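Record VOC family protein, 137 aa.
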Amino acid sequence: MNYEVDHIGIAVRSIEDALPFYINVLKGTLEDQYTSDVPGVEVHVAVVQTHGQTFELLEPTNRESPIARFIRQKGKGVHHIAYRVEDLDQAIQDARDKGIRFLEDTLRTNARGRRLIYLNPASTEGTLFELCSYPGD
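=>
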């Protein structure tokens, strides 16, 4: 199974305030913006491309969303690192076979059609990782 960095999720209080750094300093381009109202997600997302790298700026849409809780506990900054895999179901099984645990309630398909799940940070020395795949991969 190949693992390729897909994007880095950055928790921000305000996408509007954060975007100028990514656009003006890093010379990125805003590729997409969308909102997820899925219970347990509740986030505005801005997808920024910078020289072949993708950042997702994550702004909470309510005080109880996971991103809002993250910002309260750890502050703004890197929320997760996402790895793209060819077959998400196989990647999940391979990781489970190695003793990796998942945040089971995070398995979903997002607004851009990406299937994803987060690994339990207890299995990764505290770092939140996402595994994802796209339709047609």
